[in-house]
Design goal:
It contains three helices and six strands, in the order E-E-H-H-E-E-E-E-H. By secondary structure, it is of the alpha+beta class. The chain has one domain: Thiol Ester Dehydrase, Chain A. The protein has a six-stranded antiparallel beta sheet with strand order 1-2-4-5-6-3. The longest helix is centred in the N-terminal third of the chain and has 18 residues, at 42-59. It starts with 12 loop residues before the first strand and ends in an 8-residue tail after the last helix.
């Protein structure tokens, strides 16, 4: 098997709809995600949202590894090593997920701040929302100092805001 071969949609997809850009990531519930009764453990929802945020960033043109390495703006130069860290997360668990369910994690930009991005994330099962989170992430240098969003990041995230959908 060739190592250069890319799996289709491994990072999910960016979609456009009436409310702007969204990232959708399919996730299967595995045994390791569940309790003894086969119901998804609450921390699994948080992990799935993290994967959604990571792949959303990747499809916007950068990723966590490149940011930490100081290469988040592309090949034209290096920048201060940085990462997004979760500042605040509000979760609403509406219905359970069970082993072998195939879920969709949807991520949308709600608001951009100077150094932060607030995202709305939902997890659905068969088109029915079972979980929702509002997550604020802050861009920080590896030293821990908050950094302003670069223009490249701001443009990438702004394309996904509801204000740009109309």
């Amino acid at each position: 098997m060739s190592t250069a071969r890319q799996w289709p949609d491994l990072a999910g997809r960016l979609l456009e709809d009436g409310t702007g850009r969204a990232h959708v990531l399919p996730v299967r519930v595995y045994f390791e995600d569940t309790d003894a009764g086969g119901v998804a453990y609450h921390a699994s929802f948080v992990r799935w949202c993290e994967r959604g945020r990571s792949d959303f960033l990747r499809l916007l043109g950068t990723d966590a590894r490149r940011m930490i390495d100081g290469r988040s703006e592309g090949s034209e130069g290096s920048h201060e090593p940085a990462a997004f860290v979760v500042r605040r997360m509000s979760c609403d668990f509406r219905r359970p997920a069970r082993m072998d369910d195939v879920l969709e994690v949807t991520t949308r930009v709600k608001e951009l701040g100077g150094a932060s991005v607030t995202l709305l994330q939902s997890i659905s099962l068969g088109g029915r929302e079972i979980f929702e989170a509002e997550v604020t992430v802050v861009l920080v240098a590896v030293s821990g100092k908050p950094l302003r969003l670069t223009e490249t990041l701001r443009r990438a995230f702004a394309a996904g805001t509801r204000a740009d959908a109309g």
